[in-house]
């Protein structure tokens, strides 16, 4: 049960979205106002690690992750103040599966790709082995942590993410659902993911046997104004997608429907149906 | 704005109080139900470090501290499961002054003494220099962090804590109040401290220009039962003092009055008036 | 390329062996005088994490591990000063495979068992998948890190470590050798392990296609005297086994032969041939 | 006993100097070939923290520091691969005074200034109080750690570093020497510092009662070639100053004399005598 934001457009300093707004991702890490409950438990804290992944001039993206709370993190504050990026992901973690360790923090990176995830799957402890066996053997040694999220990412790569992201995600979800329903036909899968190759930004919203996680998009340059006293603007022709609407929602934000695959390229947001069945 | 517990009596495993109860100190570190607001801000998380200090067979106490959240901390869980102690302090931190670093975590240790503190003083940044100048020069090099709490502890040692704890604390508070009121006569001092030499356990509850922090004591062996499903007993003839009553209060707990100095020795709890003026 | 010690006998404070001697394990973590070179590289630092595992009164052992250097670690110093144990393992890590993370630090724990390892296997990245597939499916979810050592431990458990340690280790080594030699018949396996159920202490020394790691044993109560100015004694009727002889070797230490399986029980040290073929 | 590098010139990626060369600063953190001994002790490891401070487009510099070894640090590797800077400092720490904590890591930052230091002063524990009392009271609350280096930095700021760096450093050194010699006329002061406002780069080399630390400068674009197999060039018209000559020295490097104050501005290196007496 994590939180994330994803941005693509004109280069901005990361602090514009990650640390500065009064209801920024980092502020949300301490107390949020949505998604408080999952199976009756209070989940108001995302203190189990954080990460930022950003594209700048290098072939591969930058990645800064730590297994500490995002709040009061001087390195994170400082870095977000310095780093500009045209396309970046940022994530705060509340563990559902997997220990508190850097290897379990998002975003995950592979070559020029970044991936981050909010959600969960039932019985991951039991399903980890059969799911990881489906990962391409040459990718298996790259597994560093113990999360469902990293497993989903390497499955998607195994199924062709680099060539056809939507088809690879469809195959990944279908394979995961098959393994899950073989084990427990009432099992839950819930995915709200963002990923990118540095050129296009993609998100997936899909749930099975449970109400879906939220996902919101905006390319209104005033979409942050209600969250920050200094009324920041994001550049025109830029797009933000968030797992939660930075705590408050206004008509500047559009809810992305469940069972959808979204592609953002040059400020054009295309949302398609994800799975037909 | 931290939380702490202190125990003295028959040796118990630390997990009995620190990690096992459903409303244990560690559970409280994630969401508490009291003291939510100080100057209007939500303070529901104590994720800025933790510490345990315990007396066993050695001349000096054990001390395990880290600048991480207490929740999901495998080392802390494991240690509390192994370590038995007749007298121990445990603390979770929500920073008011001082960075997130181990040197700012409680309890603080000096020779055979341990000290932990919940509270704050106005303008500590401004008062740090005049207050630290009053610390005995030979103790000054021992300052490792940047907190008001560590400063109060070394001031008290400078004023004779090892020989006469109550008199030293009185002098410490009077000196601090003088420095504070010289700077701002409306300034606030709020102290809820626990400290020990391994033989006696002491606590102080004192506030100036503000409602005092809470402090509760129990030597009822059933005092934990409402907090834990497995209805743990603490040994007979043992005493617990807590900064918050493990979230819920029952008649097994006694509120310690403000402006009081408490001494626990061989299960006898003596609460005296602290400052007369 | 790590270092470890293992002790069983009369309870001692851990600092006697881990932190106090002038050539203690912690001192060795900064500069060692043996095993400097493996494939031509200088390996004088074991700064990639440490761990101690000890048996006291609980059913399961204590375990304190961190992914930091052992030197200057106040928590480790403090803990080793407080904790007494009749049987304990201690380890400092220099990474060969696996990231710097707590989950890759030794000793590894399972129920009442502890396991630590010095050594390596060729091509572990490539062999990780086929080796981990041989782990019992119900144990697979317990894998937390990415080391060969943890893989060997869970393989041994899968093959009956809890019931017959020697037979389980034999089967583990045979299976590993088969996977290895299928991939590269010149591949290297080198194992110097210590493990315990809290009652008996076991070590294994085995190498394939390479000169074996060292392993030394002593139950001479003066065996530490040449390493520490204050001439500490270990209790009579106690046994120490070390991966390196605390830097210097004297006739108080016995070299354990290669291809051997050692059992220590009530101060009796039995060394048997490990694999016949 | 630390190590540092400082660069100013055409923007380069930090990895060019910090992490990539075969004898880069990070490689040096594991085993160095100079300055092995200070007062007879082996000092081959700089594993007590690291930091990089860099100037890019913001008014204040970026700063990334951690109290971990620099080697195997994925965040540091990654950041140095992404970040470009025209002027930067980088430091690896081997503690002489001050605990292992981020607040004791270099570079230290104040407004647009960065400062890093290699060296030591005798009896710092004893001198810390009288030295810190000389820091301007309004700067005192900014002290975060316990090092001589941070104390020297805030003393220099107190004496006008921002307006006249050389005069401020002269006054700082004179005041420190006075406090030191009052306490012990045979006491040692050894300073090899680099500092910058983002426009000019300064270094100081000064020692008292001891052989000075080394300091080397180069603006030869081939000065790195002997340290890295891929023969990197630094841009023409750029300057590097290092506390140790990246392990090997060639005629492309010039030794900076003791008792000197160096200013680098637009690739012009000016070295002046520091103290006349």
UniProtKB/TrEMBL annotation, chains A, B, C, D:
<dbReference type="InterPro" id="IPR026869">
    <property type="entry name" value="EgtC-like"/>
</dbReference>
<keyword id="KW-0315">Glutamine amidotransferase</keyword>
<dbReference type="InterPro" id="IPR017932">
    <property type="entry name" value="GATase_2_dom"/>
</dbReference>
<feature type="domain" description="Glutamine amidotransferase type-2">
    <location>
        <begin position="2"/>
        <end position="277"/>
    </location>
</feature>
<keyword id="KW-0808">Transferase</keyword>
<dbReference type="Pfam" id="PF13230">
    <property type="entry name" value="GATase_4"/>
</dbReference>
<protein>
    <submittedName>
        <fullName>Glutamine amidotransferase</fullName>
    </submittedName>
</protein>
<dbReference type="GO" id="GO:0016740">
    <property type="term" value="F:transferase activity"/>
</dbReference>
<dbReference type="InterPro" id="IPR029055">
    <property type="entry name" value="Ntn_hydrolases_N"/>
</dbReference>
<dbReference type="InterPro" id="IPR052373">
    <property type="entry name" value="Gamma-glu_amide_hydrolase"/>
</dbReference>
